[in-house]
Amino acid sequence: MKLRVKGLGLLLLLVLLALCSTIDVCDARRGKHWRPRSSPSSSLLRKKGKGKKGSSNRQHGSNRPSPKPPLSPPPSPGNGKGYQSPYQPSPSPSPNAPVSPSPVNGSGHASPKSPTPNCGKGNQPSSRPTPTSPQGAVFNVVDFGAKGDGVSDDTKAFEAAWAAACKQGASTVVVPSELEFLVGPISFSGPYCKPNILFQLDGTIVAPTSAKAWGSGLLQWIEFTKLNGVSIQGNGIINGRGQQWWTYSDTDDDKDDDTQYDVEFERMPQVKPTALRFYGSFNVVVAGITIVNSSQCHLKFDSCQGVMVHDVTISSPENSLNTDGIHLQNSKDVSIHHTNLACGDDCVSIQTGCSNINIHNVNCGPGHGISIGGLGRDNTKACVSNVTVRDVNMFRTMTGVRIKTWQGGLGLVQDVRFSNIQVSEVQTPIIIDQFYCDKRTCSNQTSAVAISGVQYENIRGTFTIKPVHFACSDSSPCSGITLTGVQLRPVQIPHYRLNDPFCWQAFGELYTPTVPPIACLHLGKPAGNNLQSYHDLC
Fold first, then answer.
1. Topology match between the domains 135-244+271-327 and 346-529
2. Which of 93, 111, 253, 416 sits between 20 and 30 A of 489, alpha carbons compared?
3. Do residues 291 and 299 lie in contact, with contact meaning Cβ atoms separated by under 8 Å?
């Protein structure tokens, strides 16, 4: 009997062993009731990978999403309109800390990997997509100690943020919105900076008003020098607070009780700084920002190539002396468009060494209009070529489109086109003046900067003093002046005397009748005119 029981037990054991040999425990875990909801297995992903390329990794019947690639931390303040940087660091870590590309679990650290069951077939590679590294670092000036209260000096914080961005390349310096930063004279300089740095300005930068900050006088307040691919953009404001320089206090004026203001003002240096200057740089973009109340020129480009200015607002009072809106010098391939300019001097001033300048869709006024020159001061050589100014509105400016040169200069202005200029109550809409002088008296000199090939097309609107003023040199008459569709009508303004068109040694063609008639223009070319080419003179 005992032998039978043992035999039966042995038989049962053999049957159980046979049944177990046909079951894969790990495969059983992949059944419906064992399927993990947090992430699909590698075999399931392989099956889904054969389907549509853009199919979701979320499993059927699951309300919980599968793990996603890491999301970028929330952007730091100030990423305004037009912000292009694809990545911004979290405000908490230091900007100098390296950014980890590891997946984020909410605390800023990498999520630990869950173990994969081993069924004897080896570990399967993870199906989670590899996160990409951020393209360019972001450096917020606040992270470098800037207070943004409009009182504390934040100059060093701006310098530190720039130094960090300069080493990275393709990086961004952020000036966040809703803060006001007091910044003294500063230079964001190369040439050892890596290219393509974005200066994202969404807050306000204000200039110091104490004489001590300016020493004996500086030519610029904020300067970007010797850079390649530098951009400044955003919704922010640069406020030069130039009232300190515009008008000197009158010691005999008993009505002014602000004695401290007068004393401080009188100590301001005579040399006035430009608010924002770019020097020796390539591929420069200025977009979206506002520049107000500069002590002198608001925005200047000197020895730059490849410049784009658009959607910019520049503003200062009409009586603020020498506050040009945009000043170009020794710069090539410049485009200025969709910009509003109101100031106390030229809306745009184009100086020697400029070529391939394109200005369009600009509003100008108040101010002195758009000017080429003055050129040739102190008997110097000046050369400007290939300038187009079109689709411009001018309101209550002193001049409209103007070319001005000093007596005694050398060089040539050539290939200039003024087209579709709408003027409203402009004193003198069209001017060429080869006898320009900003002093009470200037000595008569024989030589002059030559002017040739100037086109005026569709210059229309109203004037308050004189429609046209062509005052050209006896030794170097203006040639190649053409007028098409010029219609200028007078508007009587108190204390202004209306004058007829004026011409002196001006030669060219009238392609259509003008209003009023410009009968003083000499048709054709000047007798014995042997004007040299741009190549010969420049």
1. yes
2. 416
3. yes
Question: What does the block give as tokens for 70?
Answer: 């890491």
Q: What is the mean pLDDT of the chain?
A: 79
The pTM (predicted TM-score) of the whole model is 0.73
Token output for 432: 């060429």
Under DSSP, the state recorded for 464 is: S
Higher pLDDT, 440 or 451: 451
Contact 378, 416 (CB under 8 A): no
pLDDT in tens, 345-394: 999 999 999 999 999 999 999 999 999 999 999 999 999 999 999 999 99
Give the residue among 224, 227, 248 at the shortest CA–CA distance from 238: 224
Catalytic residue among 345, 346, 415, 433: 345
**In the chain, domain spans:** 135-244+271-327, 346-529
User: Is 143 among the catalytic positions?
Assistant: no
Q: What is the CATH number of domain 346-529?
A: 2.160.20.10
Active site residue 109: no
Taking CA 138 as the corner, what is the angle to CA 173 and CA 221, rounded to the nearest 5 degrees?
Answer: 5
135-244+271-327, which class in CATH? Answer: mainly beta
Contact between residue 505 and residue 473 where contact means Cβ atoms under 8 Å apart: yes
More confident residue, 385 or 76: 385
Catalytic residue among 143, 298, 324, 368: 368
